[in-house]
Amino acid sequence: MGHGARRRLAELLDQEEQRGDFSTRFELSAHALRIQVDGVGELPLPVRAPVAKKLIAQARQARFGRGEQTLSDTRVRDTWEITPDRVTLGGPDWDRTLSGVLDGVRHALGLPPTTALRAEPHALLVYGKGQFFLPHQDSEKDDSMVGTLVVSLPSHHSGGELVVEHAGRSVTHRASREQLTFVAFYADCRHEVRPVTAGYRVTLTMNLLAERVRPADGNDGGPVADLAHRLTEHFAQPAEQRYGYGRPETTPPNRLVYLLDHEYSRRGLDWDRLKGADATRAARLRQAAGQAGCEAVLALAEVKETWDAVPPYDRYDYYGETEHFDECEDDECEGECRLDPDGEPGAERRRTGDFSDYELGDLIDDEITLGWWTRPDATGGEQISLPVPYAEVCATTENKDLTPYQSEYEGYMGNYGNTLDRWYRRAAVVLWPRQRSFAARAEAGSEQALRELQGHLDAGELHRARTLAQSLAPFWKHQGSGEAAAPLFAAALRVAVGLRDADTAAMLLAPFGVETLAEEHAPDLAAAAAQYGWRWARNTVSTWFGPVGARTGADRTAWLASLPGLCAALRTSDGDGDAVAAPLAEGAWQATRQQLTGWLDVGREAERRAGMERLGAPLAHVLQAADGGTADTIATALRGLPDTVLECLLPVLRTAARRPATARNGTHAARAFQALADHCETVLTTSVARPVRAADDWSLAPAGACRSGCDLCPDLDAFLNSRTRRVMEWPLAQARRRHVHSRIDLAGLPVSHTTRRQGRPYTLVLTKTDAVFTREQATRDRAEADLVWLRKNWPRTPR
C-alpha cells in the first residue's frame, strides 16, 4: 500500500506543468554588441580569419577542471582562451539586449519569478579547424551559479556544434553566421563542442548567477491537496518490503525522499535556485508538506545501481567479454590455466567508460545515501550520512533515464558478472512529519539533534531530553572516529553526562571509535565516570575499541601518540578520570598485543621486522600512558614472547629514549622500560656470544609446522636440517611442488626452487643460497650495534 502512495505522488508531480527546459537558444542582431580585446582592438562582426588569427596570437591554451585540479590536455580540450579581464563588452544597446536575453533565459529554463539572472564573463574562446571540447560538465564557480551562457559571435565556419544533454535528451546548437547566438543551459548538463571542420568558431562564455529579487509569496498556484493526502497516506502506512516477501514492517517510514532531476553543489542547493521541473515539483511538495504537517529540506543524494547488462558488440560472447585462453607451459595443467585479455591469470576484467549502448536487463541492486541536507529553518546545511531504504524513495524520473557520472562493467567471471554499475548524483526533497522531526534528523547522525537534546537539558526539561534520547536507540549506529567525528562525540558526551541515565548515556557514546577521544574530552569523560561508576566506564571504553583495518590503522597510530597526554589529563581532571584512563591503556595494550602476535608468526624476516618496527612507537606510547601496575604487566608479557620480539622492543626503547631523562624516569612506565632494556641486553649478549657458523655448515631451521600433516614436509625439514646437503632434486607433481614452494616462501628461507621440466613428473630442484651465511652475519652485526646503543642509553640499574 505504501508503494501505491509513493507511485501516485510521483505521477501527480509528473502531471504538473513544468517550467521550462534544460537548455534554450536566442538569436539577435550583431549590432547590439561592441567587443574589444586587449592587443587586438575592436572586433568587426562577423569575425573573419585574419582577426581570429590575431586573437589566437593573444590567447593561451584553454584549461579545464578535474576534481580539485586545473589541467591542460589537448586530447580533452583543444581551444584557445582569452581571460575576461582583457575583454570589454559594450555598445549602446548591449545592456538592454543582455537584460532581455537573461529574462528570456530565466523563463525558458523555468527558474522562479522571485529570482533574477546575472551574467558574469568567464572567457573568450577561439576554435580553429579540428579543435574541440569533449563531453564535460561545468563546475559551479559561485554559490549562486546555476548555469552557463554561451554567446557565439557570428563567423563563417563549419562544425563546432554545441551539444547539450540531460536526462537522456540532447539538443544540438549551431551558431549563426550573421547574428549573435545565445545558448543557455544548466550547469549540471553534460555538453561538448564538436570539432570545427572549417573556419573559426569564436564564443564568449559567461556564468549565469541567480539572485533573489523578492521573497516568495507562498502561493505558487495549483492544487496541492491531493499531494498532501498522499503524504499523509505514506506516513500512516507500514513500510513495505522491496520484493513483497519476508517479514512485513509494522512501523511507518520515517521520511519520504523525492529525487529531483538535476545535480546541485552544496553551495548551490537552495529553494530559490532549483532548475526547470525541479523548481515546480519542489514548490508543490513544500506547499503540500505544510498542509500535511510535515517539514521539508533539500538534500544531495549519491545513487549506485547495479544492472544485469548485455554488451552490444560481437566482440563479446553470450557471457560478457570473450574469454582468452592460452596453453599453459606446464603439461600437467590440463588446460585449466585461464588468462584474461591482458594476459594476467585470474585478474578481474573491469572496464570503465560510456556504456549507453548496453542493453539493460534486471535491476540487481541499488543504494541511495544522503550526504548533505539543508536545515528546516533554512539557516544553512550540514554534512550527514544516511542510507535511504526502498520504502522511503520516490521519483518521477528513474535513474536509468538520467546520465550517470560514472559507469563500470564487469564481464562474465564464472559464477557472477555481466553487470553494469552506474553512479548518479541527484538532489532530493526530504520530508517527514513534524512530530517525528527529531528522530528523522537524528538518524542521519545530525549534530543538530544533539544540540536539541542539550537545549532541553539546559532548560531543565530532563524528562523530555531522556525520552527523545531513548528514541535514538533503534538507529544510533556507527558515528565514525577521528577528528571528523570529534564535534559530534563532544556533543554526545555532554548530553550523556546531563541525562543522568547510565543506559541511555552508554547508548549515545557506544557508536564512536576510540580514535575520536582527545585531551579536550577529558573533563567530561571524568565527570561521566564519576556519575555512572567505574564499571560503566570500563564497559563503555570497551565499545570504542574495534578492529584495526586499512582505513583505521593510520588514525589508530596517531591516536596512540596522543594517549599519554589524554590519560594524564584524565588523571588530573575533577571526577574519576582514572576510571577511564586505566581501561583506555589496557584496551590499547590488548589491541597492540594482537597486532604484535600476528607479526611474530610471519616467517619472512624483512616483512616481519618492518611490521614489528612500526609497532615500536605505538607500544611505547601505550606504556607511557599506563599506570605502574599495568605497565609492569605489559613488560612481563613482552619478556615472555619469543626472542624475535626484540625487533619491536628496541624501537620501543628508542622511542622512549628520545624523551628527556627526567621525563622518562618520572612516568608510571619507567620501571617497565628499564625491565625491557635489561631483557633486551640479556638476549643480545647471548646472541653475540654464540659461535660463528662454520664455513661448511648449511643447516637451516625447519620450515615451521605443516598444518596439512603431509608426507612431504618431514623430507623437506630433513634437507633443511642437514649441515652438508645443499641441493635436493625431488620429482613431484604440480600440486605437491606448489606445497613445497609455499612452505619455503612462507618461512622466508634462503632456498631457491626451480622446476626442471623433463620426464614425468617434473623435478623440483631446491638449492640453499649464500644467504645462509650473509643473513646470519648481518644479524650478528646488528645485534652487536644494538648492544652498544642499549648499554649507552639504558645502562642496567645497579642491584
From TrEMBL:
Residue ranges of domain Fe2OG dioxygenase in the record: 112-215
Gene3D superfamilies linked: q2cbj1_9rhob like domain
A Pfam family: 2OG-FeII_Oxy_3
Domain of life: Bacteria
Protein name, entry field: 2OG-Fe(II) oxygenase
Annotated TM spans: none
Upper taxonomic lineage: Bacteria, Bacillati, Actinomycetota, Actinomycetes, Kitasatosporales
InterPro entries found in the cross-reference section: Oxoglu/Fe-dep_dioxygenase_dom, Pro_4_hyd_alph_FE2OG_OXY
